[in-house]
Amino acid sequence: MKNNFFEDEKTELKKSTSELKEAIISIVSILNKHQKGILYFGIKNDGTVLGQQIGKDTLRNISRTITDSIEPKIYPIIEEIELEGKSCIKVEFEGNDIPYFANGRTYIRVSDEDKQLSQRELRNLILKANKADSQWENQVTKYNYEDIKEELLKSCIKQGNESQRINYKYTNKHDILNRLGLINEEGYLLNAGNALFGKNANIVLKMAVFATETKNTFIDISRKTGNIIELSKIGEAYVKEHIKWTVNLKTGRIERLEIPEIPVDSIREAIMNCLCHQSMVTNQEAEISIFKDRIEIYNPGTFPEEYTPQDFIKGTGKSILRNKIIAQTLFLSHEIEAFGTGIRRIYEECQKNNVKVDFRQDKLGFTVIFYRKSDEELEQIANVPLNVLLNVPLNVPLNLSEKEKKILEIIEKKHNITQNELAKKLQTTDKTIKRYMDKLKESRIIERVGSKKAGYWKINKENFSSK
User: Fold this and answer.
1) Distance CA 340, CA 13 (A)
2) Strand pairing report for 456-459 and 446-449
3) Which of 92, 126, 197, 269 is the most exposed place for a label (fewest CB within 10 A)?
4) What is the pLDDT of residues 238-287, one digit of tens each?
5) Start-end ranges of CATH 3.30.565.60 in the chain?
6) What SS3 class is residue 404?
7) Which pLDDT does position 255 carry in this prediction?
8) 3-class DSSP string for 294-324
9) Mean pLDDT of 189-209
10) Phi/psi at 387 (nearest 5 deg)?
């Protein structure tokens, strides 16, 4: 019986693998239009079966070429089949990570033809993908409120209480998840709730240490699956383990001070922003890549088209949230700061610590690049007096107590720290910290800028010399 083959919006026919380049364009076109399709090698476009010569490496070469030529990556099912007594090749493919690119260009399927997209059409395709992102958060999972890691939820509420962003105490899982808008009326987790606290969350974080400045040889590689909260902690610990640290002995105190080559606060901010703002509807994965000369943190979510990283460094960029429910919860629990300020804080912290940082807009994502310090640079840091390292004048008031000096050091590193957090760091009571802070405020050494909830502490270094 003769097979009836014809091309349409989901099917492409090619005479042989000599048309592999054109076949890749057709795959991308179909993916961008329908997210799945089939392609045959060995059949003319009028449906005539010609057959295809198939060697031992033919299927492997097709697979490798498709993987190397299409972004985001796809992994099709490729098999040899027999049609009308002749050998042919069938390629089945699917993917939801639109837009797809073939060798840097993108196409769309129109009837049985492949049309290259204009800038405007590409923009509309990206908007379609972003709409799918926003809908994803509100979709209901098969897991209920019992299927979360309660210790993570309790910790987030506690942090929210301490930062005064949350004004209610922890009660139980159902009540708190409901207050945060992470479950539906029947108690089932929304995707946002599962992504944040779920036992069954399958968000992926890939981490690797490479031997040189390229990805040719790796020293260590790891792939972790879990929820956003736990992955952020895993990612931070991984970077801290593999970066270089130096010890500053000129602290003026008995204890030594360990200093990382890259500010830990900036690393933490970049990882959390990556996990929080990534696209959840694609098959791409967040990545931490540690090279000999730099660290790259890749976020699989496109940067807002109308802005550049420089806009956010200047403070002129407007926050456009991909995952609004997730971001709001992380803000309330003090895991992230004010929306749209992460890039600026990373930049300013790195500037203060003399660390070069770049922000790269990729076709399908966004990368923060921290450049590492040499051993010679770290040795210089080890011999710099602490007051110089923290950019504090030498004439810090001599009448300040060690606790007060320590408070200034901590505030210098984290301007928005709460008095409750200070008490914990210094292992003292809230009442004692308040007394120290009142004294520093009365001396005009520090002042509160902004509101009680969203403000920060400013150190008035110009007032030191008068003391």
Assistant:
1) 47
2) antiparallel
3) 92
4) 999 999 887 765 544 444 557 788 988 899 999 998 998 887 877 678 99
5) 127-389
6) helix
7) 46
8) EEEEEECCCCCCCCCHHHHHHCCCCCCCCCH
9) 95
10) -65, -30
- DSSP count for the chain of H helices, then E strands: 16, 20
The CATH topology of domain 127-389 is Heat Shock Protein 90 (3.30.565)
For the question of whether the overall pTM of this predicted structure is more than 0.85, the answer is no
335: CB partners within 8 A, 6+ apart: 156, 159, 229, 232, 272
How much is the CA Rg of the chain, to the nearest whole Å?
Answer: 27
Q: How far apart are CA 341 and CA 126, in angstroms?
A: 24
CATH 1.10.1790.10 fits 393-466, yes or no: no
Q: Are strands 357-361 and 446-449 parallel, antiparallel or unpaired?
A: unpaired
Q: Return d(Cα 416, Cα 422) in angstroms, integer.
A: 11
The letter for the amino acid at 278 is: Q
CATH architecture of the domain covering 11-117: 2-Layer Sandwich (3.30)
Q: Is the pLDDT reported for residue 467 higher than 60? A: no
Provide CATH 3.30.950.30 ranges for the chain: 11-117
pLDDT reported for residue 240: 92
The count of C-alpha atoms lying within 13 angstroms of the C-alpha of 466, restricted to the half-sphere facing its C-beta, is: 7
Give the orientation angle of helix 324-332 with respect to helix 150-162, to 10 degrees: 60
Q: Does the pLDDT of residue 416 top 70, yes or no?
A: yes
Peptide bond into 260 cis (omega under 30): no
Q: Please report the pLDDT score of residue 304 as a whole number.
A: 65
User: Residue 78 pairs with which residues in a beta bridge?
Assistant: 91
